[in-house]
Amino acid sequence: MSNDTFFRLIVVLIPALGCFFAARGILHYFQLESYQFPGYFRTLNRNPIHSYAPGVCVTAFTILLLWLMPAPWKIDSASTTLYWLRVVPFVLIACILGRLTAKLLTVKKAKKPFVITGRIKRLYVVYALVLLGIAAVVYQCPHWMMISALWPLLLPLVVALAGLLAWPIEKLISEMYFRDARRKLLSNPNLIRIGLTGSYGKTTVKHILGAILSEKYPTLITPASFNTPMGVSRAIRERLTPSYQIFVGEMGARHVGDIKEMCRLVKPTIGIITSVGPQHLETFKSIERVAKTKYELIDALPESDSRSYFFDDGSYCLEMYHKTNKQKTLCGRDPETADVWCDNITVSPEGTRFTLHIKNKGQIECQTKLLGDHSVQNILLAAAVASDLKLTLKQIAHGIEKLQPVKNRLELMKNPGGFTIINDAFNSNPVGAKAALEVLRQFPARRIIITPGMVELGDKEAEYNRAFGAQMVGCADIAIIIGKNRATPILEGLKESGFAPENIHRVDSLDDSTKLLHTLVRPGDTVLYENDLPDHYQEA
User: Is 45 exposed, middle or buried (0-12, 13-18, 19+ CB in 10 A)?
Assistant: First the structure.
């Protein structure tokens, strides 16, 4: 190989190697968006510095290295001996600079760290092949040196191309896991399969249902927020054993058809709709499309030997209840219309008490550590299912008494400083946020809310956040709002509704809110953390 050829090869490899290491943060965004391209590109636009700066940095240090690297035509023939020894170190420098770029531009202290999963490893292999392919194409171009320096500016698109090329491989692998999980799930004909979905409350209902049903049956629920086909498939393959009599699968959705795909896996005979509301409007575009997607669960139930459960929200869930002709149960507050209802609700810092009524089966006094009126709504759905599965009222009440708050969902915590924390940081939506404020309102002494607001609400995000700010009046005494642009409508809602201006604080980050809180909080205060945005929703 001539020195000219070797030099050209090194030049086209330098940006490829730099990009391989520099793209870690961009690949992290792709992972956070579950490898979905629409969400990935929205995340890039929300985080321009972390998204586009890596490619700019690779271009900058590529130009610098090309300027410093000795070109064979610029040295005399006496100096060409072992020319490659003078050039190869520039390749190593490119790798180091790419790694430093990733370190500087990757989100620090990520709430959901970049995980090197099997899928990411496969994506990295495809990504490396794409980079080598680009290098090969550039090598053949007439203006190869200039193109070598400039193409890294398109780094986010290169990552997207790698994701697109890897998609058929991942589809094949996921289908293999999917079918194995379904085979395992259906191999036990006596296993009761329950599917549940909703705009909010589904994870909480899942845990409540698992706790109550465990009073009589060995019950497996999908862990944490495993609610995608791959997540549920993994739970089934790793955890389901013949000893279980009931399987409860949480079904999440961000697009029309997602629940239908989940039902293809679980084949549920019992379906629960927890709620329908303005969640994930960024992808669904309208609540009507949300409702249509949730109803895919009811459509998937067998015509006979199945049952569906709804809460009477006076809106979409009630419409679904009337729409289906399959066996169904309605939970609510009105004993004239509901099959399962409650009354005599009292809420305190110790939890909630209420009377549970089940038509034709009687009533029983219940108490739970869960906070809030909406927690009772979730319990009613679980109690209705448990009753139809032959649990007694005493077994149901005993299961309710043992319930523990789901982590980061209205979780009551005592701080060593003498104040109380209500941790509702997992996520937030208009209905859940209003319910959390109602819980906060019932606490004595000063009440403090810390929140960045709500996301994934599409064109109505500002409207919902402004209403959220207005709802804080009378529920909180001090408001600490996190963020920049997204904080604006919340602040407007606070001020328009008469919240005391001296008790409104805006900070840039969660860390800043913690520092401010320590200067404000006193023993006996109650602090509500409402939502904690994931890394790809942070404002730069």
Answer: exposed
